[in-house]
Amino acid sequence: MKGSTLDARSRSLIIYFEHRNDVETLIEYLKEHRPNVTWCTEYVDENAEVKRDLDELASKGRVAVESIGRLNKIMAESRLLELEITKGMFGGLLLEDQRRRMQKHIEELHKITQEVT
Questions:
Q1: Mean pLDDT, the chain cut into blocks of 10 residues (117 residues total)
Q2: DSSP assignment, residue 39?
Q3: Model confidence pTM above 0.70
Q4: Which of 21, 17, 20, 14 is nearest to 42 (CA)?
Q5: How far is CA 41 from CA 37, 46, 82, 106, in A?
Q6: DSSP string covering 18-30, please?
Q7: Angle 108-73-94 (CA atoms, 0-180°, nearest 5)?
Q8: 3-state class of 97 per DSSP?
Q9: Torsion angle of C-alpha atoms 84, 89, 92, 97, degrees rounded to 10
């Protein structure tokens, strides 16, 4: 790394990761040891393949989070519909406490589904 002051351990780790070209090993090391962020940033900035791999992992992570968000919204909307149908069809058969709890769930699901939109 250009102009950086790395200790011997950091330099040997960089050589090891460069030799293996193994982003997963690098990530595991970073999670376990939480080393100096400066040398990690310099290493990634200077290693195009690692940077590309990390960018790809970040992109896949964003896609996964967006998919989970959409799935949760659909599940919440589906559950809301179920509760509204249940309330309309069987609300009169429920105990007062059950109706109150169901209404509370309906209201909360309405808020959540409106926030996510």
A1: 56 67 69 67 77 87 93 94 96 95 96 82
A2: H
A3: no
A4: 14
A5: 6, 9, 50, 47
A6: HHHT-HHHHHHHH
A7: 40
A8: helix
A9: -40
